[in-house]
Structures are given as structure tokens and as C-alpha cells.
């Protein structure tokens, strides 16, 4: 399950769009742990909103030898685009 990020008001008011690349782990219950911004454009504008959203994601846990296990190094890219319509 993914959750759309909240567009930062300051960035929306200025008409700024961008993206954030996050890396994190998924625990044995499918929860996101330790998200970090790996890259972003522009830097510093969307990172917090992206982290707040990814922390609400829920994944199907990876099963290895019949047991749910952690997965490290998962990446996702969030794009922030204004609705001009």
C-alpha cells in the first residue's frame, strides 16, 4: 500500500516541482524503517514530505525459508507535480 505525499505549501506557492529518491528497509511486518533521502531535485524542498509519506507505506513481507525477513536497500522515487488543470 502506498500513500501520496503531501505537497509542501511553500513549494506549491512558488510553483516548484521536483522529485525525491528514498532508500529504506522493510521489516518482517512490511513496515518501512530508516528512510533516507538519497537524491532530490531541488535539494531540501521535498525530502520531509517524501519521508512522511513513505513511513505510511505497507509492503508484503519477504518470506525466506518460511519466515518473514527484513529487506534492506529498497528504493522508491516520488515525483511532486502541481495540478495545473
How would you describe the overall organization of this protein?
It is built from 2 helices and 5 strands. The chain has a domain at 1-6 and 28-80. The strands form 2 sheets. The protein has a 3-stranded antiparallel sheet, with helices on one face. Strands 3-4 form a two-stranded antiparallel ribbon. The chain has 85 residues and is an alpha+beta fold. It has helices at 9-13, 47-54, and strands at residues 18-26, 32-41, 62-64, 67-69, 71-80. The chain is elongated and about 50 Å long.
How would you write the strand order of the largest sheet? Answer: 2-1-5
Unreliable stretches, pLDDT < 50, 5 or more residues?
none
Major sheet characteristics: 3 strands, antiparallel
Helix- and strand-based class? alpha+beta
Quick one: how many beta strands? 5
Q: State the order of secondary-structure elements, H for helix, E for strand.
A: HEEHEEE
Helix content: 10-25%
Beta-strand fraction estimate: 35-45%
Number of helices: 2
Instruction: Sum up the overall morphology in one term.
Output: elongated
User: What's the alpha carbon Rg, rounded to whole Å?
Assistant: 15 Å
Arithmetic mean pLDDT? 95
